[in-house]
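In practice, a research group might receive sequence data for several interacting partners and want a quick structural hypothesis before committing to experiments. The following worked case mirrors that situation: the sequences arrive first, and a predicted assembly follows.
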Amino acid sequence: MTDPAYDYDLFVIGAGSGGVRASRIAAGYGARVAVAEEYRVGGTCVIRGCVPKKLLVYGSHFAEELQDAANYGWTVEKMTFDWPTLRDAVAKDVDRLNAAYTNTLNSNKVEHFLDRATITGPNSVRLASGREITAKHILVAVGAWPVMPEFEGSEHCITSNEVFHLESLPRRVVIAGAGYIALEFAGIFNALGSHVTVVNRSETILRSYDASLRDRLLQITMARGIEYKFNCGIERVEQHEEGCLMVHMKGQPDPLPADAVLVATGRRPKTDGLGLENAGIELGAHGEIVVDELGQTTCPSIFAVGDVTNRVQLTPVAIREGHAFADRVFGGKDTRVSYDCIPSAVFSQPPLASVGLTEAQAREKLGSNVKIFTSDFRPMKNIFGHRPERGLYKLVVDAQTDKVLGVHLIGPEAPEVLQAAAIAVKAGLTKADFDATVALHPSMAEELVLMR
Ligand code: NDP
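A structural hypothesis for the assembly, expressed as tokens:
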């Protein structure tokens, strides 16, 4: 496999989820692998995404749990929250993971350069330090980057890259967008006591999710004090004395005062300045690298995985794509990624989780041959905590075959419940299979097998 004509068999650009997995697996097959990373090993998920976000979600949950504590007989003398303590603890865990990912590369004999790499041809890259390197294959796994729309004063706003480093907890937060990042951070800041306003260009939150779940999330989060301004966008942001920001919105007479403005209006493939044109690599309309189903770009020696291809912007998908690439190119195995039934979750408060077809998608595909089963319940935890919030579980079933086509959940721990249900949907199980399963009591998950 090793070709002495090149410095390496594989050169990977980007040491995130997809790049690290591909490097490690390829090296395991005996390939000589090097990876270049311009910032920190671990990528978006580990350094400034899923992991630190989830820790902030855990941190913010204590607000509710400490309130509930009295009902369980605990006396909490004085409840205070210190943002720098949480922020720094999260940063420390990110350091730990950064080191763990670096160790993974070292222990798999993957050489790594903490440097920016640019493609100079089908089999060559140049590091920012000036070093020229050749490789038989190149894998681009550079991920995506938050989009900052152009408006006056956008330099006063932050994205999900900066939100983990805020000096203090903002008292008032304005969040632009109503997708994953917007609603996850709306939940975190709301729970931590900030006043949150979500500003979105349409009146639809979390567009790809089932409408019933979206409605439920909207109702609950509004009752929790999050304000929504729909069908409007940020026009300009002014900085006033002592750091106060004034957010002017289209169609809204009064500006909103804020201590932080978080822009979460999508992420764009990070292809700028990569030198892709030097290898004739075609880009799509959103700046994404166009790949075939095997991840091959329009340059046969160059492949791409993960968010930079803008197929499914989820860590586990990038990992699978990186693994499949290494299996195919270096392991002689025809591993493919199945894009069917990918489960996903939004760690909003409450969280929601979903797999398969939504009710609307199923009706579009099957017309009237769709059966819907729902359970609208008040979780035991909420009853005891005197919270009126209700969970909602929905099964979308093919009326002809009885197959469960989609599972959609909102409520405490919904993502934990969904993962097991995703196995059933992926395996093509029927509603009768769900019904034949004995409930696990008392749990929220038991609702999945009790819908009649
Ligand atoms: P999303 O695509 O989830 O949401 C973007 C939001 O911004 C939508 O509300 C959209 O409105 C709005 N929007 C899009 N373009 C514009 C624009 N030009 N001007 C104003 N508003 C705009 O993006 P995120 O940034 O929240 O997240 C990016 C991706 O990261 C997600 O798609 C997801 O794949 C991944 N992610 C996954 C997480 C998870 O798995 N839990 C967590 C965080 C991120 P509209 O819908 O009306 O078009």
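Before designing any experiment, note the following. The longest helix spans residues 83-107. The mean pLDDT is 97.
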